[in-house]
Specification:
The chain is α+β, with helices and mostly antiparallel strands and 138 residues long. The protein contains 4 helices and 7 strands. Strand 5 and strand 6 form a beta hairpin.
């Protein structure tokens, strides 16, 4: 984490579990077949790019994430099973996220999810064209 006030606890091997929770919370309205049709098995963020949910994009998504009240959240990636838990996330900003534009594809698609599943912020490897995205799920 780039902000020294934020404490991120590494939670190894939680990635698969968190991706499942993300699908349950944000794509639960789609059938398994509908999820396959939009290639969510490749990238969860296809939920947004295929317009299967209401979301904010680009600068609007960043602004929504920045102003969102945050308590506890998780950070995970599309293809890695390591994840992070940020317990006191109230000051978490986009620039604090452990995102590296020069990283390999395994860690280029990042998902930040509220512990209760009320919102998610997504940075994609296609960030020049697609994303970031913000979904509010209340």
């Amino acid at each position: 984490m780039r902000n020294n006030e934020l404490k991120a606890l590494e939670i190894p091997k939680w990635g698969r579990y968190l991706r499942g929770k993300w699908i349950e919370k944000f794509a639960g309205h789609l059938t398994d077949e509908e999820q396959r049709e939009i290639y969510m098995d490749s990238f969860l963020w296809h939920l947004c790019s295929y317009e299967k949910t209401e979301c904010l994009e680009k600068e609007e998504a960043i602004a929504a994430f920045e102003r969102q009240k945050k308590k506890k959240c998780t950070i995970f990636y599309q293809y890695m099973n390591d994840a992070f838990l940020v317990e006191n996330a109230k000051n978490l900003k986009v620039n604090d996220l452990p995102y590296d534009e020069d990283a390999d594809l395994d860690s280029k698609d990042m998902y930040v999810m509220d512990w209760d599943g009320n919102w998610t912020f997504i940075i994609t490897h296609e960030n020049d064209y697609l994303g970031p995205y913000f979904i509010l799920n209340l």
